[in-house]
Write a structure and sequence with these properties.
Blueprint: H1 3-62
């Protein structure tokens, strides 16, 4: 193989390595976002349940 082919081969190797790192970074980013979203959902779901329970108690006391 000549020097041109070696340069081209090295270029494609670097390019594929960069795409692998970008893919891993993207997967990690979206996994972290999903985890944060899940924790936020659970937090506000608990608050909504508390509010619903308080409303139910208040309505039952009014009867």
């Amino acid at each position: 193989m000549g020097p041109k082919w070696e340069k081209l081969n090295h270029f494609f190797y670097d390019l594929s390595h960069d795409y692998l790192l970008l893919t891993i970074g993207g997967v990690l980013f979206f996994a972290i976002q999903a985890y944060i979203g899940y924790k936020t959902y659970k937090h506000y779901d608990r608050k909504l349940t508390r509010i619903e329970n308080k409303l139910t108690d208040l309505l039952s006391k009014m009867k």
